[in-house]
Write a structure and sequence with these properties.
By secondary structure, the chain is an alpha/beta fold. The chain folds into 2 domains: 316 residues, TIM Barrel (Alpha-Beta Barrel); 87 residues, Immunoglobulin-like (Sandwich). Helices cover 30% and strands 17% of the residues. The chain has a 7-stranded parallel beta sheet with strand order 5-4-3-2-1-7-6, sandwiched between helices. Strand 3, helix 9 and strand 4 form a beta-alpha-beta unit. It is elongated. The termini are far apart. The N terminus is likely disordered. The protein binds alpha-D-glucopyranose. The site of alpha-D-glucopyranose (GLC) has 9 residues, from loops.
Length: 444
């Protein structure tokens, strides 16, 4: 489907991200930090700036733009080969209802999310913010409003932190492709991009995250990314910057999959198969899948940025509302286990996921096994166990290879994930290999 000379996947990877890739078994947030990107000061400073973000764990991504009017995925302009002049006409139809962002922020908050990241300009080049550098922006077209100002107001009024997604690749700007081969075009285009980044970092008060995307067709040197990010940090000293301007900066961004790194990471994912609104995409994740993904990110010390793609009027597709509402009910009771988690080394089970706080292991059973729940390979002694929600004590038996929790309800108390709180005599770890190697093979 994609032009082979523009493979989407390779556009997403930056040298910086790839360099930090480690198998998840090695990756821990408390592992040695890699060299910080050239524009970050010290590891200590980064840790200070990132504290809220690590604790937040769960955020809402919002993809909104002219592609929402088409309702055929945010890549429609390129994938369907739509001429620029034809695509521009969408700006005359794009007029979302005022303050649509308030419902997004409310939903994010009720889902237990603590921050939002919204597209200020996607690859299509249309700006949702007020810019002096082009007329191709919401305030100067049908919407006649700064949609980013509305989003900022909405996030702030719900007490959420917020970030700006900004695509470096631009399918609309006349220099957006020829900048690769024409130095005068590169100069104009880079000035335009830096100018817009300056605007979004200057006009909305404190911004928590700058989330760059696709850095085609230039190298970080061509984009002058280092200079750009120094400017950003001067304007926003506490900001967190992702890795997609081609230098590592503060965090790495695995996309549509969960992968732990030995540097701060955030897995971003769609709720169906599209970032921007796609009317017919019905491949929705279930609330259970969302909870399981959030648990995996939490367990491995990362963040989970889950997307909504609002309709052209700004309303959120019904299935997204339903999923996030159910996730929110689960988060009401279990959010403390997400926001207060330490990285967890217990990972193996065919029906449970795990989080940890100090010496306590939380077993999140998403496929409830029934009256007995067994865990293999736990290396610590269990001191006590209880049902997390009710506090009811659980009986257990432990031998060298297995701990069994008994007398549990026959059917799942919580259909998304029922949690057992298991206090151990040290930070819980697991050794599955020892079961295979050492468990007696004779039947006596
Ligand atoms: C990719 C896609 C883009 C989406 C982004 C989110 O870069 O090109 O459409 O916005 O991923 O991570």
């Amino acid at each position: 489907m994609n032009n082979p000379s523009f493979p989407r996947r390779t556009l997403l990877k930056t040298a910086g991200a790839a360099a930090f890739l480690l198998p998840s078994s090695v990756a821990q947030t408390n592992a040695k930090q890699p060299d910080s990107g050239p524009t970050t000061s010290t590891v200590e400073d980064r840790n200070r700036r990132m504290q809220w973000w690590h604790q937040a764990r769960f955020g809402m991504f919002v993809h909104f733009g002219l592609y929402s009017v088409l309702g055929r995925h945010e890549w429609a302009m390129e994938e369907e080969g739509i001429p620029v002049a034809e695509y521009e006409l969408l700006a005359k139809q794009f007029n979302p209802k005022p303050h649509a962002a308030r419902a997004w922020a409310k939903l994010a908050k009720s889902a237990g999310m603590q921050y939002m990241v919204m597209t200020t300009k996607h690859h299509e080049g249309f700006c949702l913010f007020d810019t002096k550098l082009t007329n191709y922006c919401a305030p100067k077209q049908a919407a006649s409003r700064d949609l980013i100002a509305e989003y900022v107001e909405a996030a702030r009024s719900e007490g959420l932190r917020f970030g700006f997604y900004y695509s470096l690749m631009d399918w609309h700007h006349p220099d957006g492709a020829r900048c690769a081969t024409d130095e005068a075009a590169r100069r104009r285009f880079v000035d335009y991009i830096h100018g817009q980044v300056r605007e979004i970092c200057s006009n909305y008060g404190k911004v928590n995250v700058l989330w760059y995307d696709v850095n085609w067709p230039l190298t970080p040197e061509g984009w002058e990314s280092e200079k750009m990010n120094r400017m950003v940090r001067q304007l926003q000293p506490d900001i967190l910057i992702n890795n997609r301007s081609g230098i590592p900066e503060d965090f790495t961004t695995p996309e549509q999959h969960i992968q732990a790194y030995n540097a701060p990471w955030e897995a971003c994912m769609t709720m169906n198969d599209s970032w921007g609104y796609q009317r017919a995409d019905d491949d929705w994740k279930s609330p259970k899948t969302v909870v399981r993904n959030l648990l995996t990110c939490t367990r491995d010390g990362g963040n989970y940025l889950l997307n909504i793609g609002p309709k052209p009027d700004g309303t959120i597709p019904e299935p997204s509302v339903e999923v996030l509402t159910r996730v929110g009910k689960w988060m009401d009771a279990h959010g403390a286990l997400i926001h207060g988690a330490d990285p967890c080394e217990v990972k193996h089970s065919a029906f449970s996921n795990f989080t940890r706080q100090g010496n306590t292991l939380f077993i999140h059973a998403y496929f409830w096994p029934g009256e007995t729940l067994a865990l293999g390979g736990l290396q610590q002694k269990v001191v006590s166990a209880k049902m997390y929600r009710t506090g009811q004590t659980i009986k257990f038996e432990q031998d060298q290879f297995r701990v069994q929790f008994t007398g549990l309800p026959a059917s799942a108390p919580d259909p998304l994930a029922t949690v057992l709180a298991v206090e151990c005599d040290g930070p819980p770890t697991q050794d599955q290999t020892s079961i295979r190697m050492r468990r007696k093979r004779e039947s006596v």
